[in-house]
Fold this sequence. Notes:
It comes from Streptomyces fulvorobeus. By secondary structure, the chain is α+β, with helices and mostly antiparallel strands. It contains four helices and 14 strands.
Amino acid sequence: MNALVNDIGVPGGIDVLRVFCGPDGRHGNALGVVREGAAYPDEASRQKLARTLGFSETVFVDDPERGRVDIYTPGTRLPFAGHPLVGTAWLLDLEVLELPVGDVFARQDGEFTWISARPEWVPPRTLERYASAAQVEALTGPPPGEGWLYVWAWEDEAAGRVRARAFPRRGDGIAEDEATGAAALLLSSALGRALNIRQGRGSQILAAPAPDGTVEVGGRVLLRNPVLAGA
């Protein structure tokens, strides 16, 4: 879209965040958070707004005290997603977020906001390892095929440093996802170790598995208002 988010007349108002920013405060994945979810009482109205905003995800807050939230891409509703939960936990200073799949616990640690969730809550994604970070960098767009794809390679295996890019391939206008907490969660779980992931143009995601089978995912969050939604 080509107008300020603050100027499109969103009932209840909307906060626009950047989630998983790099160490320099740049990049991160854009997120819209509608604090007054009741202004959009049904799935159709929420889906329409998410499509209009055009962010990879938009969150509707149904109960800020209990942390009950509802997540949408421009084309579908999600039972779980990483960067929307990290961003919403930071914005509303929440310790628990309620989702249909279960409770997601959150914490603040200095400049990082963390969530803890189970890998089985993540919608299906293909994790594809490349031989080098340079090969990941060289991609000019989504590789051929269908379904959500997360390509990654080691930058420094001993240090747990990963280079990654994410391609939803779902036909909703999001060709590449700048920073993807859910895929980072799956990769950390699959490898069984803590990871420091550089994704997209320069976003940073931290992830670490816990003994109880959950995985913590964390990163920096910054407020992006006012902003061009397509910027």
